[in-house]
Design goal:
five-stranded mixed β-sheet; alpha+beta
Length: about 260
């Protein structure tokens, strides 16, 4: 119970200034567009690296940056570098589009690279996981990844691209689901590896970024508390709170 209380407080209060919120992928369900707080293409790119729009070999847009000391110019609001659009068609998860920022344009607008990468080939994602789709009103904005809180969500369990379960949850049900999923995640080798990494290399355990931009609307008392926390060695409980926020273990299938 202590861990659960810590997680909720840690996630939705002082960490508002930790980092930058991320542009979500998009999913279209019954002709209506939603954000999806998962990135189903990440596993696909792990298995098919040549199709990655930034680092892969099939797209030349970013080629000139690959052998330079200067990194590819990502936006801090989209570290993965792309936005994918999915659809639910005939109870299947389908990739409908893939866009990246046009770095040859001053406006840096997003442009579609789907046809350049896949041509007319049907993309088989082989995705299995739980998609998190906010369907309600934003009630707590958190400037960290996908940590903002909404009053309603739709969850979809996908097995090899097929929808096998879906359900609408309110805020309290969603938090209960996230805590349950994280408890199961703690039993995985992925969690053990991450925990070991943060314990052995505490610099990897990102501390609050206390710049003026990231602390807008934050009281001096909150900033002082964060600075004090920053001086203390990270405990396993603190690392759990951090991992709860940054990790999205959609591969951990739990009931909801």
């Amino acid at each position: 119970m202590k861990f659960k209380i810590l997680i909720i407080l840690f996630t939705f209060s002082l960490i508002k200034m930790y980092a930058t919120s991320q542009a979500p992928d998009i999913i279209i369900i019954n002709n209506k567009e939603y954000s999806v707080l998962n990135n189903p293409l990440e596993k696909f790119f792990e298995n098919n690296p040549e199709y990655h729009p930034i680092y892969g070999s099939k797209l030349t847009l970013f080629k000139k940056y690959k052998n330079r000391d200067m990194p590819i110019p990502f936006s801090t609001g989209n570290y993965r570098g792309y936005i994918a659009t999915f659809k639910i068609e005939n109870n299947m998860l389908v990739l409908a589009d893939l866009t990246v920022k046009n770095i040859d344009s001053k406006k840096r607008e997003y442009i579609s690279v789907y046809k350049q990468l896949f041509k007319n080939k049907k993309v088989v994602l082989n995705y299995s996981g739980i998609l998190i789709i906010p369907t309600g009103q934003l009630i707590e904005a958190v400037n960290f990844g996908y940590s903002s809180l909404y009053d309603r969500y739709k969850l979809m369990t996908i097995n090899n691209d097929t929808v096998v379960k879906e359900k609408e949850l309110n805020k309290d049900e969603f938090i209960k689901f996230k805590l349950s999923q994280f408890e199961e995640y703690k039993k995985t080798e992925d969690y053990k590896t991450e925990l070991k990494k943060y314990i052995e290399d505490p610099e990897d355990n990102k501390k609050p970024e206390l710049s003026k931009e990231n602390t807008k609307g934050t009281s001096k008392k909150e900033i002082t508390a964060l600075k004090k926390e920053d001086e203390q060695p990270s405990t396993e409980e603190h690392i759990d709170g951090f991992l709860f926020m940054i990790k999205n273990p959609d591969f951990v299938i739990v009931d909801y």
